[in-house]
Design the sequence.
């Protein structure tokens, strides 16, 4: 998980969100089932493209490059099943992989244990990496419930993060052995590029490089 910045609301939501929300709430208030054609309008291509741009096509929770293996889901940060009024709220939409989306499901956020919101919360106050493991810090209950509920240390993630750390450490070793200044500078830039927020698992790499006193 890494800090995310909300981009401009897609025009299709500017033009239609209020009416779409009214339609959904009319069904809810009448106790009727909402037709998929009405409740799933947030899947519009404009919305998905803007969200993919916003998240660099990474899962907002585990930072996996979603589109390499799976189309990805538009995720409701606050579950639409519990709060249908937020179905088309731009600030409530993000991008998630199948596994994080499924792990989170319809978790109802409680005041004392809200899941970390990558747009609104300062991630480093709640979560940090220790090698390939994401753990809570500062005794953060919200951090702990987030990594446990969404299963952010599932084995396949640990395996892929470990591979990333090995690649990064090999490059660090090469950088530290190099004695030609021009090449050493190039290698340092390559090392730091691992922390670029467009890269997979960039927050882990930031933590790793900070621990190595490189960042």
Sequence:
């Amino acid at each position: 998980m890494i800090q995310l910045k909300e981009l401009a609301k897609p025009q299709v939501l500017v033009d239609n969100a209020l009416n779409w929300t009214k339609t959904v709430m009319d069904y809810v208030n009448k106790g009727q089932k909402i037709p998929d054609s009405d409740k799933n309008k947030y899947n519009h291509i404009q919305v998905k493209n803007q969200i993919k741009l916003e998240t660099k096509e990474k899962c907002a929770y585990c930072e996996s490059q979603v589109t390499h293996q799976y189309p990805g889901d538009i995720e409701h940060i606050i579950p639409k099943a519990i709060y249908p009024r937020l179905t088309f709220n731009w600030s409530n939409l993000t991008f998630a992989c199948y596994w994080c989306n499924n792990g989170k499901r319809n978790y109802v956020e409680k005041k004392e244990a809200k899941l970390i919101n990558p747009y609104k919360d300062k991630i480093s106050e709640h979560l940090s990496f220790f090698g390939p493991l994401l753990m809570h810090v500062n005794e953060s209950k919200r951090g702990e419930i987030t990594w446990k509920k969404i299963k952010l240390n599932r084995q396949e993630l640990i395996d892929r993060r470990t591979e990333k750390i090995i690649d990064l450490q090999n490059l660090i070793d090469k950088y530290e052995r190099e004695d030609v200044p021009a090449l050493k500078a190039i290698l340092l830039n390559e090392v730091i590029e691992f922390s670029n927020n467009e890269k997979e698992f960039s927050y882990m790499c930031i933590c790793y490089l900070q621990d190595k006193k490189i960042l």
